[in-house]
Design goal:
The complex is a heterodimer of chains A (about 625) and B (about 350).
Chain A (H helix, E strand, L loop, with lengths): L10 H6 L8 H28 L1 H22 L2 H17 L4 H16 L7 H35 L1 H6 L5 H35 L6 E7 L2 E6 L8 E4 L5 E4 L8 E4 L5 E3 L9 E5 L1 E5 L5 E2 L19 H4 L12 E4 L5 E6 L11 E5 L2 E4 L10 E7 L6 E2 L2 E4 L6 E5 L2 E5 L5 E5 H5 L6 E7 L4 E5 L4 E7 L2 H27 L4 H16 L1 H12 L8 H10 L11 H24 L3 H5 L1 H6 L6 H27 L6
Antiparallel strand pairs in A: 1-2, 2-3, 3-4, 4-5, 5-6, 7-22, 8-9, 8-11, 10-21, 11-20, 12-17, 12-22, 13-21, 14-16, 14-20, 15-18, 18-19
Chain B lengths: L19 H11 L6 E13 L5 E9 L2 E3 L3 E5 L6 H9 L6 E6 L2 E2 L9 E4 L11 H11 L4 H15 L14 H12 L6 E5 L7 H16 L3 E6 L2 H7 L2 E6 L2 E7 H5 L14 H13 L14 H14 L10 H19 L1
Helix pairs in contact in B: 3-4, 4-5, 10-11
Classes of the chains: A alpha+beta (about 625), B alpha/beta (about 350).
């Protein structure tokens, strides 16, 4: 999992963006709500002045606002909201939405055939499958239940008996939203449990016997049988009856030597993880040991995406371009290295060793020794003095998280240039608690690539269950958002149209990055196929994306400017919409065995709340201004 | 119902309602002052427009009516005359194109007025998946009623509309008449001061219609105001104090039912126990005074009376088929029942 710059933001950094207030989520939220209010007032005035004339129209709008603030909002009663949400809940249950749970179970059962537990990283495969399946199923479900209910009530006129009671429009909207969220919750919980059981059981396997074991100086070294396309080696130390196998495919087993000399092999452990990472600051050095902003770009690393984090400042053209953390590479056998500086390295957090996780890429400029892999080294260094431990060499394990531990005592050179055993906390950690770890490539003309998230300390571990729950909370938040949007559209559109409108919002939200990308290329005059019309012309003329548009004169201008208008408006809409892909990607954390950051979950919570508030306001005014019986 | 009264009535006023005891409240109703106005429409107009704002129908033209406290007000008119539009405007379900509606001196679009209003829609638009008790409980919650209040009120109303036996059945299984009863019960859940009934008797059997009419009259006894719209003229005549007749969105007639229907130069006499000679003598007396005797017959009972009698008797003695019934017998037993009913109304 390659984290992006905004993943590292704390909650308050995200909300306020100190120094870059234009990018802040708070500003985006305020602008959205202000814009909604201003646009709402203008639209309301235009409509009501058409209905009652310009003077009366103004009073009608003023009255509606006054009613909202003085009557409807204070008069909103929890009892009524509860009654209405219970009704919405019952209605949805009546429409047999619970069948979706059955459908989900069927999907899981079928997936059991197709998901390959013999793959390289079965835990990732299983977890990301269940989370993605739940996610899209819930999004579709939220779309269906939320968009049809209110229009159906209006069509059946059951709404007549409700609005002729002292029920506020606020209560109708809130009641619906809460009722449907309750339905979604009732469905998510069993789906979550089913997923958990499915993942747990799908990854379970047992090695039945030890195929090889020999005793060397009282130490038993052996090999398990070959199950699910892998085997483990294990060692049982002298005098011990239990030992551990090595990590294969993210898990290991406990091997116990029985009294009669046979072995029994335990359940797989360690495949469902929730590592709590502690990231450091990264600094690259080039082959001459000069500090550089980025590592070497070995090509094919520049991908689109990463525009969204700039918020409004990108929309108004202040921030330009994608911001994506790319892998920077260090060259082997030179002074080139990546220097990670970790804060707050204390004996309390790391009592026994420094657990360190690596997810590093390798780039080969020649084939080399294909059997042994590329070697790298880690060096602990005191940022405040010249004390430095001896490098620890390792072989790079690509495409997986390589778990290592650095010892707390390591020979090296202390601040006075003497060679002795160095204690990490006494000699290598500076007075303000900082420790540097240098990553170097040891094979010359080969390269190692890392990002900030490629090397981290792991002071603690959370439970997989809680991490899965957090992933489900993220799905729940998305569902809540979509329900709010669905209810909003259903206050002024008919059921199917409201559903399509919500779906369009979801799709725009999902394709936001491509829209930003297109806009970026239009802005910076890079030929990349252009907007929708230009693309169509290119398709018909069978022109390549990167050539100049082969249309002359006015037609060219017309195509380009129409495209610009379309793309700019889509850009504005997409910027206003919730960043769903980001929320979906929390599944990546769970699948990658990394604890979902609280800051990220908190961001999603706040964003969801903001959008629900927006949808609530819009819904209220639409419902209030609507002639229910028309 | 009018033709079979045993008492000799001295006025043609009797035409308008079932018995003398029911006529009394009309008199008190007429003495209301302007401050007791519950619903007031001022120059109320409604034009239905299509999506582009083009005029489609002029459904209501400058309607000015007042409904006073404690009266039963009927809106009459053929289909499409603007009755339902008026009720929807009063409820705030529609917004007036011009003019105003005031309900309890508040604008009709204010939700607060609904606390004192009960509304029975044209068809009972209720949630089919709820049962009677859940339905009433739900609507009770909408009035922010406490759990105990709701429970008590639900019991009262289920007894009132006679649905205790069916309280746990989903409304989808109900007959039209039963749905109507639930609809009525939900309209009364908050003990409203103003009750709006849109076609209250459609879909009901004759017993139901009679019960509905008795209930409306009973509501007036309790000092409530009732506005109903209907094209069942007989029903309107039986219960309403005042009516407004609408046609093509215009108010054509507005006034007290008794005044509107009184035939000034005809005298009606109901007598029992006369011999043929006596009848002849009466005819002579009429002739002597210069009167023109239009008819002197044995009255026929209405189908409603016959039907109600048969059903009542069958409930009293299940299984027996009534074979010897005559119109007279029917009228007599009905009168007894009628009398007791109007007595209980007071």
């Amino acid at each position: 999992m390659n984290l992006q710059p905004d993943d590292f933001w704390t909650f308050s950094e995200w909300l306020l963006r100190p120094g870059f207030f234009l990018e802040s989520a708070l500003l985006q939220g305020i602008v959205l709500i202000v814009l909604a209010i201003v646009l709402g007032l203008i639209v309301a005035y235009v409509i009501s002045s058409a209905r009652y004339g310009p003077g009366e129209g103004f009073f009608a709008v003023a009255r509606a606002v006054r009613d909202f603030l003085t009557v409807d909002l204070p008069g909103t009663s929890p009892t009524r909201i509860f009654a209405l949400s219970r009704l919405a809940f019952k209605e949805a249950i009546r429409r047999r939405v619970l069948f979706v749970i059955g459908l989900f179970v069927v999907i899981l059962l079928l997936a059991g055939w197709f998901l390959n537990p013999e793959s390289d990283d079965p835990a990732r495969l299983y977890i990301s499958f269940v989370l993605t399946a739940t996610n899209y199923l819930m999004l579709a479900l939220a779309l269906f239940i939320s968009a049809f209910s209110l229009p159906q009530d209006i069509e059946n006129r059951t709404i007549y008996t409700i609005v002729t009671k002292p029920v506020r429009a606020t209560e109708i909207v809130l009641g619906r939203m809460l009722g449907f969220v309750a339905v979604g919750t009732v469905m998510l919980v069993p789906m979550g449990l089913a997923s958990y059981i499915f993942v747990k059981r799908g990854l379970d396997h047992s090695h039945l016997e030890v195929v090889e074991a020999e005793e060397i100086d009282g130490r038993i070294v052996g090999k398990t049988d070959y199950v699910r396309k892998h085997f483990h080696t294990f060692t049982i130390e002298k005098g011990e009856t239990q030992g551990l196998t090595n990590f294969v495919r993210g898990h290991r087993h406990v091997v116990t030597r029985n009294d009669d000399g046979s072995f029994s092999i335990g359940k797989p452990t360690g495949q469902l993880r929730a590592r709590i990472p502690d990231y450091g600051e990264i600094q690259f050095y080039d082959r001459n040991g000069e500090p550089k902003e980025a590592g070497i770009d070995v090509g094919a690393e520049r991908l689109s995406d990463g525009y969204g984090s700039a918020g409004i400042s990108r929309l108004i053209g202040v921030a330009k371009g994608a911001r994506k953390l790319e892998h920077g590479y260090v060259e082997g056998g030179t002074l080139g290295m990546a220097e990670f500086t970790f804060d707050n390295v204390t004996a309390d957090r790391f009592p026994n060793e420094l657990p360190i996780n690596l997810s590093i890429r390798a780039y080969r400029s020649f084939k080399g020794d294909i059997e042994s892999g590329i070697r790298g080294s880690l060096t602990m260094k005191n940022p405040g003095s010249s004390a430095q431990a001896d490098p620890i060499e390792f072989t790079v394990e690509e495409y997986q998280i390589d778990e290592k531990a650095l010892p707390l005592v390591r020979s090296g050179t202390d601040a006075n240039g003497e060679t002795r055993d160095l204690n990490v906390f006494e000699d290598l950690v500076s007075e303000d608690g900082k420790l540097q770890i240098l990553l170097k490539c040891e094979d010359s003309s080969q390269y190692l690539g890392v990002t900030k998230s490629g090397l981290y300390l792991r002071p603690a571990e959370s439970t997989f269950e809680w991490n899965l729950a957090k992933a489900y909370i993220s799905i729940w938040l998305q569902m809540t958002m979509i329900i709010a949007f669905g209810v909003m559209f259903s206050t002024f559109l008919s059921g199917p149209v409201a559903m399509v409108a919500t779906a369009v919002c979801v799709l725009l939200g999902f394709s936001a990055e491509s829209i930003y990308d297109t806009r970026h290329f239009i802005d910076s005059n890079i030929e990349r196929g252009g907007g929708p019309i230009e693309s169509l012309v290119r398709l018909v003329k069978q022109d390549a994306m990167t050539t100049q548009l082969d249309v002359e004169g006015v037609a060219n201008q017309l195509i380009k400017s129409t495209d610009a208008i379309i793309i700019y408006s889509m850009d504005a809409i997409a910027t206003a919409l919730p960043n769903l892909p980001r929320m979906v990607s929390t599944a990546e954390y769970a699948a990658g065995g990394i604890d979902i950051f609280s800051a990220i979950l908190a961001r999603h919570c706040v964003a969801t709340f903001g959008y629900c508030l927006l949808a609530f306001l819009i819904s209220y005014f639409f419902l209030k201004s609507r002639e229910i019986a028309a | 119902m009018d033709n079979n009264s045993t008492a000799v009535a001295d006025s043609a006023d009797e035409n308008t309602s079932g018995s003398g005891s029911q006529a009394a409240p009309i008199a008190t109703g007429s003495s209301t002052t302007a401050s007791d106005v519950v619903i007031e429409t001022r120059n109320l107009s409604k034009i239905y427009k299509d999506f582009w704002g083009r005029k489609k129908v002029h459904a209501l033209k400058s309607l000015d009516i007042e409904v006073r406290k404690g009266e039963i007000f009927g809106l009459l008119g053929p289909n499409g005359s603007g009755k339902s539009t008026t009720i929807k405007l009063i409820l705030g379900l529609l917004f007036p194109t011009s003019g105003r509606v005031l309900v309890f001196d508040k604008d009709a679009t204010e939700t607060k007025k609904n606390e004192q209003i009960g509304y029975l829609p044209e068809e009972s638009y209720l949630y089919q998946f709820l049962n009677a008790e859940e339905t009433l409980d739900f609507y009770g919650r909408l009035f922010d009623m406490s759990g105990r209040q709701r429970k008590q009120r639900i019991e009262e109303l289920l007894t009132l509309v006679g649905l205790q036996g069916a309280r746990h059945r989903q409304l989808r299984e109900y007959s039209k008449g039963m749905r109507r009863r639930v609809g009525l019960a939900q309209a009364l859940i908050n003990d409203p001061d103003l009750i709006l009934l849109d076609e209250p008797t459609t879909g009901l059997d004759p017993i139901g219609i009679r019960e509905m009419k008795d209930l409306i009259l009973a509501l007036r006894e309790q000092g409530k105001t009732v506005l109903l719209c209907s094209h069942q003229l007989g029903d309107v005549q039986d219960v309403c104090d005042r009516v407004a007749i609408l046609h093509q969105g215009e108010l054509k007639e507005l006034g007290r039912v008794s005044d509107l229907l009184k035939v000034q130069d005809v005298t009606e006499v109901h007598v029992t126990g006369l011999t043929d000679e006596a009848k002849k003598e009466i005819a002579e007396v009429i002739a002597k005074h210069g009167g023109d005797l239009k008819s002197m017959d044995n009255p026929t009972a209405t189908m409603e009376d016959l039907f109600l009698n048969i059903v009542r008797e069958s409930e009293a003695r299940p299984g027996a088929r009534r074979v010897t019934a005559t119109a007279d017998a029917a009228s007599e037993s009905d009168n007894a029942a009628d009398g007791s009913k109007s007595g209980s109304d007071e």
